[in-house]
UniProtKB/TrEMBL annotation:
Functional note: Binds directly to 23S rRNA. The L1 stalk is quite mobile in the ribosome, and is involved in E site tRNA release.
PROSITE patterns: RIBOSOMAL_L1
UniProt cross-references to HAMAP family, sorted A to Z: Ribosomal_uL1_B
Keyword Metal-binding appears in the UniProt entry: no
CDD domains: Ribosomal_L1 (cd00403)
Molecular functions per Gene Ontology: rRNA binding; structural constituent of ribosome; tRNA binding
Gene name for this UniProt entry: rplA
Gene3D superfamilies on file: 3.30.190.20, 3.40.50.790
Family: Belongs to the universal ribosomal protein uL1 family.
InterPro entries: Ribosom_uL1_bac-type, Ribosomal_uL1, Ribosomal_uL1-like, Ribosomal_uL1/biogenesis, Ribosomal_uL1_3-a/b-sand, Ribosomal_uL1_CS
GO CC annotation terms, alphabetical: cytosolic large ribosomal subunit
Name of one Pfam family that matches: Ribosomal_L1
Protein's name in the database: Large ribosomal subunit protein uL1
NCBIfam families, A to Z: rplA_bact
Length: 229
């Protein structure tokens, strides 16, 4: 049996297995744990009572976190005409069409967000096998297929995140960094939680959240008492 590290033993003492904590307490526990030698992200996992085989029950959406994600993101924009200068002036890291598609195909640069204007989608659609698995395929529901390039870039820089459930009905999403204040993490979590709650399918009856947990990138998960939210 593999011996537990001192860090793991210390962190396990900070939480009680299977106990559910109010979000305020859970954040305090996370911040008091021993962390990796880099600034870890804090992630949330929302296990939803949905049937992913029914398309109308799958959840996807976006929300602007009030205090951002703490991450500097690389943004690429597929567009033409006057939107090229707009995207460049708004701070997009790369703007183009076929040249941008070639960069993505050769994986010369790994972008965190792809924005596309409608007329570029015929080209962007061909990149689905690359962008889809990475979760960055432009989508009108996320506001990443749009004629309002300026707003889309500004929202992303402010801390807009996109979310969707996986095949097990779980939404995994980052909502800040371990060096954020307790107040800022709490506000970000509530914004994400409420956005997902508002996306509840109208035909779904009974409980919506089966389980919620938060964790650092390399840390233990802490279960949240979602009934207290």
């Amino acid at each position: 049996m593999q011996k537990k590290s001192k860090k793991m033993q210390f962190n396990q003492k900070k939480k009680k297995n299977k106990k559910n904590y109010k979000i305020e307490k859970a954040i305090k526990i996370l911040k008091s744990m021993k962390h990796a030698n880099f600034i870890e992200s804090i992630d949330a996992a929302f296990n939803l009572n949905i049937n992913t085989k029914k398309s109308e029950q799958n959840i996807r959406g976006s929300v602007i976190l009030p205090h951002g994600t703490g991450k500097k993101i690389k943004i690429a924009v597929f567009t033409t005409g006057k939107n090229v200068k707009i995207a460049q002036s708004c701070g997009a890291d790369f703007v183009g069409m076929e040249d941008l598609a070639n960069i993505i195909k050769k994986q010369k640069i790994k972008f965190d967000l792809i924005i596309a204007s409608p007329e570029s989608m015929e080209l962007v659609g061909k990149l689905g096998p690359i962008l889809g698995p990475r979760g960055i395929m432009p989508n009108p529901k996320f506001g990443t297929v749009t004629n309002n390039i300026e707003k889309s870039i500004q929202d992303a820089r402010k801390g807009k995140i996109n979310y969707k459930n996986d095949k097990n009905g779980i939404i995994h999403s980052n909502f800040g960094k371990i060096n954020f204040s307790h107040k800022h993490l709490y506000a970000n979590f509530l914004a994400l939680y409420n956005s997902i709650r508002q996306s509840k399918p109208t035909q779904l009856k009974g409980i919506y959240y089966k389980k919620i947990s938060i964790s650092t990138t390399m840390g233990l998960g802490i279960n949240i008492d979602h009934l207290s939210l």
